[in-house]
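User: Hello, can you help with two protein structures?

Assistant: Certainly.
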Amino acid sequence: MASKASTKPVKIHRSTRQRRFGVRLCAAVFSIALSFSAISPSYAQGSDAQRRAAIAEAMSKAGGYGKVLSVKPHQSSKNTPGFRIRILTDGRVRTFDIPAQRS
C-alpha cells in the first residue's frame, strides 16, 4: 500500500520583526496623512459669503439652473485661491473653477 501524502497547505508565518515593521510603517503613514489633513490652507477657511458668491457665479455660468453636487476649496496653477464647483445640469456634470473674492 502506498502511503498517503499530506495535502494540508503549509502555513508560512511572518516573523515578529516583519509584523512590527508593518505595524510601524502603517502607523507612520497614517500619522503623516493625519498631519496633512490637519493643515488647511487659509483659503480653505473661506467665508460662507465667498462660497455663496462662487456658487452663484457658477450657477449663472451653467445657465441659471442645476443641482450643486460639491463645492471644494481649490488653488489654481497661479496659486490663487478659489473654489471648484460641480453642478449637474441636463444629465451632465459640469465643473467650474471660480476664484475666491478678496474681502
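That covers the first. Now for the second protein you mentioned:
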Amino acid sequence: MEASDSPRRHVLGDLIILEEESGTESYEKASLAAKKAAAETCSDPMLLAWRDEAGDRYWPRYECGKGIEPPWIVWASARGADLTVCVGRRWYFYFLCWRETDDPE
C-alpha cells in the first residue's frame, strides 16, 4: 500500500479497520458494518460524516472551513469525532462516541 493510500490520512480519533466484506460496495452495507463496529467500541455512537473513496462521494456536502481540509473532515472534527471506521479501505465513517469518563466525585 502506498503512503497516500493509507487510511491514516483520513483518521479522526481512534481507528478501526474492517477488511472488505462481501457486499460492502454499497453505502448501506458498509454503513451497517461501520455502525456495528462502532457500537462494539462505545455506547450509542453518532455518525457525523462519511466518505466513499472509490465513488468520490461524501456527506455532508457543505463547504466547510477555508478549503484546506476536506469538508467531511472539517464537519466531523468540529463536532468532536473521536472514532473513524474504515471499511474495505474505501469507506470512511466518522463517529462521536459517548465514552464513559472517570467521575471525579
